[in-house]
Specification:
239 residues; mainly alpha; 8 helices; globular
Length: 239
């Protein structure tokens, strides 16, 4: 891995921290948080449709490997869902982040770890995939801090959470790049297919579920498309 790739991997981590700093000064309303979550969901959907799924096909892994890997990722996320529901059911003052869904927080860290691994896999796959994914997913990370802000997660708490998110994405990006360096197309394709299931889970079962917890406004749909267009624009421009 070159130093240039490391610097690009560092961008999402710094952006996540910047999102935490922004969130420490601005407490969005419930409606604003819903719009932010719609936007982040649009970015993740675009990452799946525009870059990740085409890259999986380019790796030329067999159909059965991809199907099995996506199924494994789906079962893993289903298990995580059952676990988080159990945690919330057994919640008490010692293990609750007050005012913030433990399920959402845990799913967010899993998603960010997945983002990092996908970025590392993109660099391992070669070409501009890693760079496009790093820049596009940085948009999601910028808004995650605002999406997680609550009455109890403000000030230094939200900065600490976003710092941990930034560290997580960097560590897993480095791990993905190192572990998949020189790997066959089958291995990279399988890893990306597994990761795609985790990202799909974040959108459908966490971000949009949380976003729909408040009264919907028609503009929410437009914001979702705006998030999709942001990532797609980055890919089309070919930064």
């Amino acid at each position: 891995m070159s130093f240039h790739h490391f610097l690009i991997m560092l961008i999402p981590a710094l952006v996540a921290l910047a999102g935490g700093v922004l969130a420490s000064y601005w407490k969005p309303t419930h409606q604003a948080r819903s719009l932010i979550q719609h936007y982040a969901a649009g970015v993740v959907l675009a990452a799946l449709a525009v870059e990740l799924l085409p890259e999986i096909e380019r790796e030329h892994a067999s159909a059965w490997v991809l199907i099995a890997s996506f199924a494994a990722g789906s079962l893993f996320m289903y298990g995580m869902k059952l676990w988080t529901l159990h945690m919330e059911g057994q919640a008490n003052a010692a293990n609750v982040v007050e005012g913030l869904s433990i399920g959402l927080l845990l799913a967010t860290f899993i998603d960010v770890a997945t983002d990092g691994f996908i970025i590392g896999a993109g660099f391992a796959a070669g070409g501009s995939t890693g760079t496009i994914l790093a820049l596009g997913l940085s948009v999601e990370l910028l808004f995650l801090g605002l999406a997680l802000t609550s009455a109890a997660t403000r000030g230094w708490r939200i900065i600490a959470i976003c710092s941990a998110l930034g560290s997580t994405v960097l560590i897993f990006a480095l791990a993905g790049s190192y572990l998949l360096a020189g790997a066959s197309g089958t291995v990279i394709g399988g890893a990306l297919a597994f990761s795609a299931a985790a990202l799909l889970y974040l959108v459908t079962e966490e971000l949009l579920v949380e976003a729909h917890g408040v009264e919907e406004r028609p503009i929410s749909t437009l914001v979702l498309f705006g998030g999709f267009l942001t990532f797609w624009s980055i890919q089309l421009i070919g930064i």
